[in-house]
Specification:
The complex is a heterotrimer.
Chain A: E1 5-13, E2 20-29, E3 34-38, H1 45-52, E4 60-65, E5 68-69, H2 75-85, E6 86-89, H3 101-110, H4 119-129, H5 145-157, E7 163-167, H6 175-190, E8 194-199, H7 202-208, E9 211-216, E10 219-225, H8 233-236
Parallel strand pairs in A: 3-8, 3-9, 6-7, 7-8
Antiparallel strand pairs in A: 1-2, 1-4, 4-5, 9-10
Chain B: H1 4-11, E1 16-17, H2 18-28, H3 37-49, E2 53-55, E3 66-69, H4 71-82, H5 93-104, H6 110-138, H7 141-168
Antiparallel strand pairs in B: 1-3, 2-3
Helix pairs in contact in B: 2-3, 5-6, 6-7
Chain C: H1 2-14, H2 16-42, H3 45-53, E1 59-63, H4 70-80, E2 84-98, E3 101-109, E4 121-125, E5 133-137, H5 138-144, E6 151-154, E7 162-170, E8 184-187, H6 189-195, E9 203-209, H7 216-229, E10 235-240, H8 241-284, H9 286-295, H10 299-339, H11 350-377, H12 380-387, H13 397-404, H14 409-420, H15 422-455, E11 462-466, H16 472-481, E12 485-496, E13 505-511, E14 521-524, E15 532-535, H17 537-543, E16 550-555, E17 558-568, E18 577-581, H18 582-585, E19 594-601, H19 607-617, E20 622-625, H20 633-665, H21 667-676, H22 680-720, H23 727-730, H24 738-762, H25 765-769
Parallel strand pairs in C: 3-8, 5-7, 13-18, 15-17
Antiparallel strand pairs in C: 1-9, 1-10, 2-3, 2-6, 2-9, 4-7, 5-8, 6-7, 11-19, 11-20, 12-13, 12-19, 14-17, 15-18, 16-17
Helix pairs in contact in C: 1-2, 1-10, 2-8, 2-10, 2-11, 2-20, 8-11, 8-15, 8-20, 8-22, 9-12, 10-11, 13-14, 14-22, 15-20, 15-22, 15-24, 20-24, 22-24
The chains are: A alpha/beta, B mainly alpha, C alpha+beta.
């Protein structure tokens, strides 16, 4: 059965660099899965995400998203596909500084040729859900990091994509804002979306995801499925040991 | 780590008898440290012998006998609390042992072993972060701290396993 | 300080395009400047050198042999203080024919080319020894394809004798051939009588030379003395070396003025572009400057980096451009030099070159220094956050309007971008202003030159000249009788004396419906009655009169009262010329004879065919040609286009570079939009919209700027020629053309931005967004 994302024998080399960024990666992501991609810097995890989003093309192999071969699309086709099927969240938010918060959220819905019915309502609802309703008319420069990232999440959701891609979403945030954003992703996953999270933080990876793949030097070295967290405290942590001498 | 200072610490809050010591001790660690009542009585005996505690009131039934801190005991407790722990690091020697043995035994399954160990750690991380969340929402600050400690240690263990895997050329 | 150099060189390596732009612009500006300057510094030199070498005549006077004897003439040099003299030479006119062409020349009888004054340099063949031989000037020979040994028929005499060209000389007193001043030919004194025609009307020619370089005033007083001492009417006409030299310089004057204007313009454009590029770069690098400051660059060092970054490519540009400009100017210099018989000597105008070099680099340094200093002084944190690209989110009205009109989102975003960063927007608009103004200037100049050219001389369909051997009556009848003739205007030329003007003024008497000739009328009207006349501005200015005022002239000693009813455009005599009706002068000067006939043809009649008919009817004594009289093409044609092209390249480069920087500054947002799903087409539309808006603003301001330049140029050119601007030249760029320039400017801006956006789009999204 094919998953929502299918990578087949994907390699990627950046020009002028000897090493392969990705060296023959096969990956199948099921619909509704929460996948974490881990690895040290330079392991290829951001490259992987870019290829899935169609923002870059592999040197060989194919990338399929929602059964469409995004690796073979033209720039224009990939762009259209991207805004209809994916939501992307970046480490550094990348909001457009000349647009208000609301306008930033609406942008993906306004790039299509057909008027996007309900986008405005959805956008406001999203901002409301994320606690940003008061900032709708503000400019990004006035918001804190955590708030900006939440705006970015809203922006990623305005077209109701099935697949969410997040590249180190908490990397530029303080721990509390980061926790908020991760909770958000968890809830979005619980509501039925597929989430692919790229991170170097193991605890972050394990927290919400059901599956953790680890990359090193462009290869997948581990693909671990995790079961739901159930263990009581005593099974997890044991403090101390009986000493033999007083 | 011995029970000694835990007991002294508990008695610093007021006289207690043996069973109370046990229950309060376990509660302090959020249920992650089961203590044998016999061990408690033994420790109390030793502490009394060392004149760090004394019985309160008449010596009666062991189960009902309350104890309190002596000045010497207070003093020792205070100085212990203010000293950092500088004993040797406790490592996960089981993993290390397994790795060395499997290398020695030459059965070539190190990679497999490490991967499975890795999964254990990942699962543990999942479970610990969930615990942390629950503890936070229940206001159990002590459990939060414990969970955090567990998470950080497990992360370190995981990193160590990653390095072992790299060495192994897995 | 090596840190400064290291950073500077690294930046230059990385921003090659921008460095290339600066180098190119400086190259073009310095080349243009050097062309102008080297031409100007050499303009009069060749003439002066040749003049001195050939002992040219400061003053040439023709005397009426009936009034004065040779003995009296030989006494004249002493009387007027001339240090050397030559003559009296018998002098007349001759019309030669060869290969279907006719040439009217002055004829002088000389025994040898040498003399104390007015030496003729023999460059081919030998002097005319006996009868049947004639010597012509080299420029005459070159232009008309005549060589030593060619046989020419004398068609000014009914008997049409033949002469052989025995030699070619260079005559310093001549002037560039393409200005159709009458050339001179020489024969030996023995056969002068035989070939001079018609009716043996001849003069005595005396050449005088004075110490130093006498002024016009000095020469005028000498002529006055001659008139006083000699019997009345002895002095027929005079010409001075200053006149010849200024004719020589006429084309050079045109060219110099044009070149000077171009180079000033080019320098202004270059300065603006440099300021634009430099300030724009600094704007785009605020963040980097902040980082530099944070690492430990002092403000001075940070400034030094940017100033050097601009100076290095500027230096390279000048190093190529300045010698290049000198080399480019050589063909022009050569042309004018060889016209006076000198071999062009290639000299490097070192002083001028060094000065230009220093001046240009100073402009660059200052343009770089001012904005860089400001940036360098900021505190590092300020600079970094300033440059983080968080502009005040301005709600621009245009963007609001675009949104309200429900235009596509990329258009709305683009229009918002145009105003989001005000400084960047201003720079971009300024680049377009210079571009449009330059294009307007260049095109308008071409048109202006064309109009001026068209205005030079009356433009009848065909001009027919007759030799003296063929009577006026016969010629008039023949021409009038040709099928296709609509009107014939006969032109007779004579010299009159105008108060306030020392030299005799060339006057043209027109017989016939002269108002139909298209001499451009600048003010007033064409003359209608006897006693009325028109003239170019120089006459009015020099005689201190206005249109409508009376003017009393002296014709052959008789006073004639004229009413100056209009001002016209004519470069004849550098603006010192008069035009009047036949009836005004004929009674006073019975010898007045027209030799040129301007013919207007019926609509639909082909001029060349008509001319051929006439030629066939009278091949020997008439010449019919369809070309206009004076052509400036010789030196100007190619120059005008070439310089216009250079300036257009400069302007386009300026606009492109502004767009480049603008897009580069926005690459972050562009990458984000791409990641969010904006197609390449939409990105293009967005970028193009911003460029179009700024381009429109720039174009709108560029139009009046260009027109102002044109007006200034026109005035300069006109004052050189003693005329006001001909009507066609003033409104050189017609109203209907203006939208073309606006559209052109916008298109160039849009094109530039699209090209820049394409290269920005090539850098993968990943490298921009993840490389923080």
């Amino acid at each position: 059965m094919t998953g929502i994302v299918e990578l087949t024998a994907v390699t990627k080399r950046y020009s002028g660099v000897d090493r392969l960024a990705l060296a023959g990666v096969d990956l199948s992501v099921a619909d509704g899965e929460f996948l974490a991609v881990m690895g040290p810097s330079g392991s290829g995890k951001s490259t992987l995400l870019n290829l899935i989003a169609g923002m870059d093309r592999p040197n060989s192999g194919t990338v399929r998203v929602d059964a469409a071969e995004i690796s073979a699309m033209t720039e224009a086709e990939a762009a259209r596909f991207r805004r209809q099927h994916l939501g992307f969240i970046f480490q550094f938010f990348h909001l457009l500084p000349t647009l208000t918060v609301l306008e930033n959220v609406l942008i993906p819905s306004q790039l299509g040729s057909r008027a996007n019915v309900g986008a405005s309502r959805r956008a406001r609802q999203l901002l409301d859900d994320l606690g940003l309703a008061d900032q709708a008319r503000a400019y990004p420069a006035k918001l804190s990091g955590g708030q900006q990232q939440r705006v970015a999440v809203a922006r990623a959701l305005v077209n109701e994509p099935r697949l969410l891609l997040a590249d180190e979403p908490t990397g530029a945030l303080d721990s509390e804002s980061g926790a908020q954003v991760m909770d958000l992703l968890g809830r979005l996953h619980a509501a039925g979306r597929t989430v692919i999270l790229v991170t170097h933080d193991a605890a972050l990876a394990a927290r919400h995801s059901q599956r953790v793949i680890s990359l090193r030097d462009g290869r997948v070295i581990d693909d671990a499925r995790l079961s739901a967290a159930t263990a009581p405290a005593a099974d997890l942590v044991r403090v101390g040991a009986v000493e033999r001498s007083a | 780590m011995s029970l000694k200072f835990g007991v002294l610490g508990l008695l610093a809050g007021g006289p207690l008898h043996g069973y109370e010591v046990k229950t309060r001790f376990e509660a302090m660690f959020g249920g992650t440290w089961d203590v044998n009542i016999g061990q408690v009585y033994t420790t109390l005996q030793r502490l009394e012998r060392d004149t760090l505690i004394r019985p309160v009131g008449e010596r009666g039934d062991r189960g009902r006998q309350q104890y309190e801190l002596t000045p010497a005991g207070q003093e020792l407790l205070r100085s212990w609390i203010s000293e950092p722990e500088s004993g040797p690091q406790q490592l996960r020697d089981a993993v290390f042992l397994k790795l060395v043995l499997s290398q020695r035994l030459g059965d070539g399954h190190q990679g497999q072993l490490l991967r499975r160990q890795r999964r254990v750690f990942l699962q543990r991380l999942k479970d610990l972060t969930a615990l942390e969340q629950r503890a936070r929402s229940e206001g159990r600050e002590d459990l939060v701290l414990l969970a955090r400690g567990g998470v950080l240690h497990t992360e370190a263990d995981l990193r160590w396993v990653d390095e072992l895997m790299a060495e192994d050329g897995a | 300080m090596s840190g400064v150099l290291a950073k500077c060189l690294a930046d230059l390596r990385r921003h090659r395009v921008q460095a290339g732009v600066v180098a190119l612009i400086l190259l073009l500006a310095s080349a243009t400047g050097m062309v102008a300057l080297s031409l100007m510094s050499q303009a009069s030199d060749p003439f002066d050198q040749a003049f001195a070498a050939q002992r040219g005549a400061h003053l040439m006077v023709w005397f009426d042999p009936a009034q004065v004897s040779t003995a009296e003439l030989t006494a004249t040099p002493v009387e007027i203080g001339a240090t050397a003299s030559a003559g009296p030479y018998p002098s007349g006119t001759i019309v030669l024919a060869s290969r279907g062409q006719k040439y009217s020349l002055n004829l002088v009888a000389q025994g040898s080319p040498g003399g104390a004054v007015g030496q003729l340099r023999l460059v081919a063949g030998a002097w005319a020894a006996g009868s049947g031989e004639i010597v012509v000037t080299r420029s005459f020979a070159q232009v008309n394809g005549v060589d030593v040994g060619s046989r020419l028929r004398v068609v000014s005499l009914p008997s049409m004798p033949s002469l052989t060209v025995s030699g070619e000389v260079i005559d310093i007193d001549e002037g560039p051939e393409d200005l159709t001043l009458q050339s001179t030919a020489w024969v030996s004194p023995a056969c002068f009588g035989a070939v001079n025609g018609p009716g043996n009307s001849s003069s005595y020619l005396m050449l005088y030379r004075f110490p130093g370089s006498p002024s016009q005033a000095r020469l005028d007083s000498d002529v006055t003395q001659l008139r006083e001492r000699l019997p009345a009417g002895a002095v027929s006409s005079t010409t001075s070396y200053l006149y010849t030299r200024s004719i020589y310089q006429l084309t050079d004057g045109f060219v110099s003025v044009i070149l000077l204007a171009f180079s000033v313009f080019a320098l202004v454009v270059a300065a603006l572009v440099v300021v634009n590029v430099v300030a724009g770069t600094v704007l785009a690098s605020y963040r980097e400057i902040g980082v530099m400051r944070a690492i430990g660059f002092t403000p001075r060092q940070a400034v030094a980096v940017y100033v050097l970054e601009m100076l290095v490519p500027a230096l390279l540009g000048c190093i190529v451009g300045i010698p290049g400009g000198v080399l480019l100017s050589q063909p022009l210099v050569t042309a004018s030099v060889s016209a006076v018989g000198l071999t062009p000597a290639f000299g490097w105008p070192v002083g001028v070159a060094v000065l230009t070099f220093a001046a240009l680099l100073a402009v660059v340094a200052i343009a770089a220094l001012l904005p860089a200093r400001r940036a360098g002084r900021l505190r590092p944190v300020e600079a970094i956050s300033r440059g983080a690209g968080a502009p005040r989110g301005m709600r621009s009205r245009i963007a609001a309007a675009a949104g309200w009109l429900r235009l596509p989102r990329p258009v709305v975003l683009g229009s918002r971008d145009a105003f989001a960063r005000p400084m960047r927007g201003i720079f971009t608009a300024v680049a377009v202003v210079t571009g449009v103004a330059t294009a307007l200037f260049a095109a308008g100049l071409e048109i202006q030159l064309g109009a001026t050219q068209g205005a030079l001389g009356g433009t009848a369909a065909v001009a027919v000249t007759r030799t003296a051997a063929y009577p006026d009556a016969a010629a008039s009848a023949l021409l009038a009788g040709q099928p296709g003739t609509a009107a014939v205007v006969a032109e007779a030329e004579t010299y009159v004396s105008v108060p306030g003007i020392a030299d005799p003024v060339e006057t043209t008497a027109l017989r016939g419906a002269s108002a139909t000739l298209t001499y451009p009328i600048i003010s007033g009207r064409w003359f209608a009655r006897p006693g009325e006349a028109v003239a170019p501005r120089a006459i009015f200015a020099d005689a201190h009169i206005g249109v409508g005022d009376p003017l009393t002239i002296q014709v052959r000693g008789t006073a004639v009262r004229l009413t100056m009813v209009g001002e016209v455009f004519s470069v004849t005599g550098l603006g010192q010329a008069l035009f009047t009706g036949w009836q005004t002068l004929a009674p006073v000067d019975p010898s007045l004879q027209p030799y040129t006939y301007a013919v207007m043809l019926r609509p639909g009649v082909n001029g060349a065919q008509w001319a051929a008919q006439v030629q066939a009817a009278q091949p020997d004594f008439l010449t019919a040609s369809t070309s206009t009289q004076i052509s400036l093409d010789g030196t100007l044609g190619g120059v005008g286009w070439g310089l216009a092209l250079i300036l257009l390249v400069v302007a386009a480069t300026a606009t492109f570079s502004a767009m480049l920087l603008s897009v580069r500054e926005r690459r972050h947002d562009l990458a984000t939009l791409k990641a969010l799903g904006m197609t390449p087409l939409q990105l293009g539309v967005m970028v193009a919209t911003a460029a179009a808006i700024l381009g429109l603003i720039g174009a709108v301001f560029g139009i009046p700027a260009g027109e102002a330049m044109l007006r200034a140029m026109g005035s300069a050119m006109a004052s050189q020629t003693g005329n006001d601007n001909p009507p066609g030249a003033v409104n050189a760029v017609a109203a209907w053309m203006i939208p073309l320039f606006v559209i052109g400017g916008v298109m160039v801006a849009v094109l530039g931005s699209l090209l820049a956006a394409r290269s920005a789009a090539r850098t993968s999204v990943a490298s921009v967004l993840h490389g923080e």
